[in-house]
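Q: How would the structure tokens look for this protein?
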Amino acid sequence: MKKVDYLSTLFVGIDIGARQNVVSAINFEQEFSIKMKPVPNTQSGADQLEAMLVDILSNSTFRTVIIGLESTSFYG
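A: Here is the predicted structure in token form.
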């Protein structure tokens, strides 16, 4: 298993919903890059999320991204 340098990692959490997903991104120091940002649960919403993450990564020193998903209701 690859060792992860948590100090240079962006942690992204996505709460999955039927119509929209809510995204937060935080670093090891608990500083938010994205805080509770709703994005549509559509292809355009996925494109929007990708653009947000690319923007953060291109303007930072993060070397790793860890993404976690949480599905609630009948998605679980």
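The chain has a mean pLDDT of 93.

The chain has one domain: 6-75.

Upvote if useful.
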